[in-house]
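A note from the maintainers: we've had questions about how concatenated examples are separated. There is no special marker in the raw files; a new sequence line simply starts the next protein. For clarity in this README we add a label.
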Amino acid sequence: MNKLKKLYRDFFGLTEQSTPTSGKPDPTKDVVLSAADAKDPKKVQAAQNILKTTKGRIHIEEEMMDEAQLINNITDYRGGVEYVLRDPSEAESVAQEIRDWATKKGFTVVKHVASPSGKVGYFYFRLGQDPGRESQRIQGYIAQKPEIKHFRFNVRGEKKPTPPSQPTQNI
């Protein structure tokens, strides 16, 4: 393999790098910037000035992102879905698309209400055998619609259970 590598290198006029491009930063030569710092031109310029003397490289640390936190838990689903639209003029078309999708997937729409402005809508679906699976399907469909700004599982007219108050201890 070494002969083949040499043949390619000679034929194409390639040279090997003395340091790998993707490796751990050398603290004596390299400058490490966070992803937020890499967007700041002043900090990038300062790092480039430092690198003129050290002959190192700039490393950008990727920030670890948490997984997306879903506002709606599967256990919150009891048939009701409230949503807010970005543009109220699309209220009728969005409602019809949700109705068509629900019918196609076997959901039964019991009730649909829209606010007078059209910005807020509400669907109430009949609960089936597996509410957890239904909530995932509804959440997946509604979450991917660009017209919808945000939504939540909520049954209108039903009081939300309040957590029991903690007894206070006398000290």
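[label: protein 2]
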Amino acid sequence: MKFLFLSILSALLLSASSVTHQVKILEKIISEISLKKQITIWSDDRDILAQLEDNNRFKTTKHCQNATMIILRDKKELLPECSQADIFVLNYELLSEVPQSFGALFWKKGRPNIVILEPRIKAQKIKITQNLKPYLEEKIW
């Protein structure tokens, strides 16, 4: 019983730590881009949204209709009226499934990977700093 409890506690701590690392990476990415308007973020991942909100570096919203940037984990959570925002996804496959998405942060072999699609950022008039240039891709792999 003690082993089961420790296993569950370890899993919860690792999961919380994983979200914290993911948010730190997202914060860095967001700070390195500029959109047509002030960035107001909404995410379908409540943990990510809460951590971004606590940070106070970025403006967040509880309603996707008010967002200029959406951080999306699940395509089913994207309402049609919210699809006009710039979308950054948390799953590589979503880059194909959500054509208005411009980039992705995902984990592969235990490491974070960042992909930003150059044709999409040009079409959406998103500017990125020199620090994000190594993550530019011409197309989805």
